[in-house]
Amino acid sequence: MSENRDGIHLTDEQRIDWLRLIRSQNVGPRTFRALINHFGGARAALEALPGLARRGGRGTTPQICSRSQAEREIDAADKMGARFVAVGEAGYPRLLQAIDDRPPLLALRGNPDALTRPAAAIVGSRNASGAGLKITQQLARGLAAAGFVTVSGLARGIDAAAHRASLESGTIAVLAGGLDRLYPPEHAPLADAILAAGIVLSEMPFGWEPRARDFPRRNRLISGIALGIVIVEAAKRSGSLISARLALEQGREVFAVPGSPLDPRAEGTNGLLKQGATPVTEAADVVAALQPIIGRELPAHELKSADDGPPEYDEPAPDERTRVIGLLSPVPISIDDLVRLSKTSSRVVRIVLLELEIAGRLERHGGGLVSLV
């Protein structure tokens, strides 16, 4: 791996190792970063996975992505004209690097220039009203005229309207499945139209059919890429409200279009306004709020190390491991509290947590919280 003024650049071998690690069982974005930081690189982390799982209490070896599997996925990307971009490399969305659970690798297809411009997300109801579709088109065109790229999820209704209204200026579609598994399937022509000036991207493996749980995961990328997110229509229990919550957690601006109190599709957006979201009736409202942010750098969570090297694993003493595990339960607890209450070092606590996670016994939450599964 080399570094230059534009960031890091993975070699072909390192890209395969990174892909193998993030595709291995029980390795999510946060765990990936912890493994890289602890073991010095993806290859060393891959070699350590069986031992970590065993010490974490798992009786069998977790499924580790093979080199041939990773190579097949890279070949599939090549055939589609897609590429894998690693966090820290030129071409990775800059703002996305600032979120705690950003993907180590993204599969990108389309015009990379779209990722160099300021972005605003627009999401809303799949069962959109005519008025909702009209205001979405107006917002997307107004944002495009102000130099923004729109971001959305390629879903029916509001998402599709936002993409279509900004095809010429550039739009970013974030998928819940693999790049070759569009949902809904009828939006394949729209996805193809996006490629000329925009980007279609996914963190999921090629061939991955999206499940219900994958859409909230996708939503964190929609808000993470953008400076702010506009909710046009959202029912009381809506995925768009999940997007708004994630945006707040990421420090993004949240906007909502007011709707009729008689329309159930406006119940969620009107609720957001009561909670302090910025009301929006035209694109200028969004531009005025986001322009002051554009010149301010957001902090990025960098990998402490990404050079492959020998593992530096010091197995915790049995009593240390017992104390840490004894403090864990299904109720989330902060890692800082674990360090304080276990009267051991941060390094020991993080090693034990890695062992448990690779064994499938730990769940990580936002804000540095962890719990036993």
How would you characterize this protein structure?
By secondary structure, the protein is an alpha/beta fold. It has a domain at 116-198 and 205-294: Rossmann fold (3-Layer(aba) Sandwich), CATH 3.40.50. 42% of the residues lie in helices and 14% in strands. The protein has 14 helices and 14 strands. The strands form three sheets. It has a nine-stranded mixed β-sheet with strand order 3-4-8-7-6-5-9-10-11, sandwiched between helices. Strands 12-14-13 form a three-stranded antiparallel β-sheet. The protein has a two-stranded antiparallel sheet with strand order 1-2. A hairpin with a 2-residue loop joins strand 1 and strand 2 (7-9). The longest helix has 16 residues, at 130-145. It is globular. It starts with a strand and ends with a strand.
